[in-house]
Amino acid sequence: MNRAVVGEKAPEFTLSTDTGSELSLADLLGKKVILYFYPKDNTSGCTFEALSFKENLKKFTASGYVVLGVSRDSVASHAKFKLNKELPFTLLSDPTEFVCKEYGVLKLKNMYGKKYLGIERSTFVINELGILTHEYRKVNSKTHVDQLIKDLGV
Description:
Strand content: 25-35%
Number of strands: 9
Order of helices and strands: EEEHHEHEHEEEEH
Oligomer: single chain
Strand order of the largest sheet: 2-1-5-4-3-8-9
Mean pLDDT: 94
Structural class: alpha+beta
């Protein structure tokens, strides 16, 4: 069930971070948030997208944004991915798929004739009041961060 609607309060969550601590969206009130969902740590498209956020992080933070990546991978997987790629932002683990469902990013996919439920690469921008201001679905990992920079004017 997709509860993420532009112009409305973003769905609340509390997830484990790549360090094992917990982070809630409520903890970030007063800050702008870029919440991006990606399918899997250490895969080519997800790595490219993460490195694009890394390369442009100063632009986002200078404009007051906090970048958070979310996937169903474990905390341990996130910690390894973050360390290996030297990612300077937080990765959140959603193994129960609760947040993925709240934001409506789980989609039926087909790979080599096998159908499975996977994360559709998506990004949500949340303002300082916790209101969802932008949503991007089916994003291209190679061009998405540049589009975000343009749209947000950072």
